Amino acid sequence: MAKRGMELSDKAALPFKTANKQRRQDLHLKQKRARDALKRSERFARKKEEAKDPKLREERLRRNIPITIDRKRVFDEVQDEPDDGGLGLVYDVERLKRKKLAEEQELPLEGEEQEASDPNADDDEDDADSMLEDSGDDDELPAEDDFEPSDLEDNTHDPLPSKSQLKSASSRPRALSPTRSTTSTNLSLAPAALAAKFPSLFPSSDAPPPLPPKILITTSINSTLHTEAAILTSLFPNSKYIRRSSHRYGYKFSVREIAAFATNQSYTAVIVLEESLKRPSGLTIVHLPTGPTFHFTITNWYTSRSIPGHGRATDHIPELILNNFTTPLGLLTAHLFRSLFPATPDLKGRQVLTLHNQRDYIFLRRHRYIFRDKRETEKSVVGPDGREVKGVEGIRAGLQELGPRLTLKLRRVDKGIQRRSGQDWEWKARMEKTRTKFQL
Q1: What is the C-alpha to C-alpha distance for residues 321 and 181, in angstroms, rounded to an integer?
Q2: Distance between CA atoms of 67 and 186, rounded to whole angstroms?
Q3: Which residue of 83, 103, 288, 388 is 20 to 30 Å from 149, comparing CA positions?
Q4: Are residues 323 and 200 both part of a single domain?
Q5: Region annotation Disordered: residue ranges (predicted)?
Q6: Number of independent structural domains in the chain
């Protein structure tokens, strides 16, 4: 309880107008101590009440949701998919498709109103969250037979739930959806106009399988980042580093000439590591044979040696995790990174490469994972809804970072290969006045 002399008066929060600076400082300290004492007494009283009734604490935690900038994220209001693919707009592709599906089926949207009842829906969701099931991203989606003809597209089926699946959802109010930073990217939700604009990055289902990636890695002219460029060859499978000529009498090839040579040698991409003050500053990725070209800036570059407790990477093809790419530009960037890795990872290597987008910064991390037994001091695995995940009570996953560690930020997407006089670009970063609007 607060002391009697520390009770906050009605005038304690009012400004104290006096010419004496020392008195103003003393009054400010007294007001601060009184407010802190009241907050402390209220907190102790609330703890006593919650100890008697634990439901009060659960209710308080349910209401006390942190208002982060990710929760304040705003999108452009788009009724229909733009004809140009929507690279200049910031809208949630998944939300737009769910809205269209709900309007067609005249059902409430997920998370806004209550849905139809099914008592076994919760058990099905818990079973699908098991870490022990050997299911990929395609297995988590509904089967194609469950979709109605109206939900199927010309080339690929719509991965959103059908009318019958929406009707079989739970009637009770669902828990809050996980934040965007914890959700994986659904690569099959690309707009049709965006897929038609970049057919090499968005292959259709009836198209022949794409060629296995073959990457040529080089640096800027007169660069000294030979060690860093060699590290990238261990990060991207089936890649080769070729030094760029820096001899005073040697011919200095441009990126367009290098891309033409790489295309004739069956390369699928060219990566140029840029340098500033003898440190990596940028990454230019050219998708062959005709582009587009992506320009990234690099910050927070750390090699494996500078990471405490790092592991040693092997030659196994890593598993790829793409998180939080929701806009058309984000899906385009995610498909670019997907084209740099083979579609069949080596699961025996237990290596995973994560590209996590948060506030338009792409965090690249590489880990090795292992499944181990749960220790007595560890807590149970809890899902995004706050409930304990079934099937993994005695199993935990251990991670060891392999490196390198870096952060990327997309700056420009060019139409063709590299910039030239009058270079046209598909998208260019600009300073947004709204801090809650993100492009990816």
Answers
A1: 12
A2: 26
A3: 83
A4: yes
A5: 1-63, 102-185
A6: 2
